[in-house]
Design brief:
401 residues, alpha/beta, Alpha-Beta Plaits, Rossmann fold, 3 domains, eight-stranded mixed β-sheet, four-stranded antiparallel β-sheet, 17 helices
């Protein structure tokens, strides 16, 4: 059952442009005969194969095709091998595999990760990306304090611990879905990686300020910013997709926030109505999402137009900077591990926008007890910090404080 269903689902994911999470959900909706135990076994096998797609295929002698598509028989043999490895004490011997194969990454991604990293660090990072990610929660401090939420979770038989860096975070010991839990239903908790929580903390909005979340997306950081501002001031959440903004409206309502103003913009110029008005602007730029490969392993095998993305990041950052008032602050962040989407973008921006000065992050590192970081560039890596991969910098428009 696990092998046949897992092979069918794996093949469907790789043939589709739809993300794996949606594909898995729709598959189980179409196959209600699988109970919760069976669904977990099938999903574990599928995600396990997506994480180890290349090394499993290499071990089996499968040819590598463009766009990483595989035949039904190749999908089945991958699932069979993955299941066999889980049932024994044996582990794949990757020592004789080419570096990118052993890392379970396409060659271009492995090469991109090597920029700015030693080989040993790149391989450690790649191995971390091939592991499942933990489930992190963010406590909505408008509703409750973290110690109280931890007590409630423990009372309900859910093992959880405080996240090591984010003062608002909780990490579940076991992977569980809490969507139906009263704490989630009443807006006390949100599901949000610890690294994502730290990005909001870098922006550090104050009460009564005007804040812009330039690429609001699903709105996780928007909601966090609203809580940090104690539901005061105004947060403008900008996005091009009406559906995402509607979802954010519902999430803000559940969180008890009324300081979030949704703005749909059809083009970057649509944001310029806020020129020079914002005290703080967050640019969580669209990117390859390489820092989230633990959660979304199918994205490793998708086509990414890096040239298009970096051009878009450059345009977005330039436009967003116009919204910052003199003396205001700007954060550029990505969930990418690639130099091209991070330092390269910032190096170019600093040349074209000399009125923006990098601010030291030392006080932020001290507050959240985050060691061994560059003074000006935050870099979170799964193998070092246990978070998704993130990058961030903080600018001041005008002279340094």
């Amino acid at each position: 059952m696990v092998i046949s269903a897992g092979a069918e689902l794996l093949n469907t994911i790789l043939e589709s442009d739809t993300n794996a999470e949606s594909t898995v959900s729709h598959y189980f909706q179409r196959h209600p005969q699988y109970g919760s135990h069976d669904r977990r076994l099938i999903a574990d096998a599928v995600y396990g194969c997506l994480r180890r797609l290349r090394s499993l295929g290499y071990a089996l002698g499968h040819p590598e095709r463009p766009n990483w598509q595989i035949t039904p028989d190749e999908a089945r043999s991958r699932v069979e091998l993955w299941v066999a490895l889980q049932k024994s004490d044996a582990r794949q011997n990757l020592a004789d595999f080419p570096a990118a194969v052993a890392s379970d990454l396409p060659d271009w991604i492995y090469t991109a990760l090597c920029i700015g990293r030693e080989v040993d660090e790149t391989q450690a990072l790649a191995q971390a990306l091939a592991q499942p990610a933990p489930v992190d929660l963010r406590v909505n401090t408008l509703r409750a304090a973290r110690p109280a939420v931890l007590r409630q979770l423990h009372h309900d038989g859910i093992d959880a611990t405080p996240t090591p860096f984010s003062p608002d975070g909780i990490r579940l010991t076991n992977r569980l879905s809490l969507i139906e839990h009263p704490l989630y239903q009443t807006g006390v908790i949100e599901i949000q990686d610890e690294g994502s929580q730290l990005i909001s903390r870098i922006l550090a909005p104050r009460r009564q300020e005007i804040v812009v979340d330039f690429c609001a997306g699903a709105g996780g950081k928007t909601l966090h910013l609203g809580a940090l501002m104690a539901n005061t001031g105004m947060i403008y959440a900008l996005d091009r997709a009406p559906r995402r903004l509607e979802q954010l409206r519902d999430r803000a309502r559940r969180a008890g926030l009324n300081n979030v103003h949704l703005m749909r913009i059809d083009s970057l110029n649509g944001a310029l109505v806020l020129r020079n008005k914002a005290d703080r602007v967050l640019v969580d730029a669209p990117c390859t999402g390489s820092g989230t490969f633990r959660r979304r392993p199918d994205r490793k095998w998708r086509t990414h137009n890096l040239d298009y993305l970096t051009a878009e990041q450059t345009r977005i950052l330039a436009t967003a900077s116009e919204l910052v008032r003199p003396g205001g602050k700007l954060v550029y962040a990505t969930c990418s591990l690639f130099h091209a989407e991070n330092n390269a973008i910032i190096d170019q921006f600093r040349v074209t926008h000399p009125e923006f000065n990098l601010l030291s992050l030392e006080s932020f590192y001290s507050r959240v007890k985050l060691p061994n970081q560059d003074q000006f560039f935050l870099r979170l890596d799964p193998h070092q910090h246990g978070t998704d991969g993130f990058y961030a910098v903080l600018f001041l428009r005008g002279q340094n404080e």
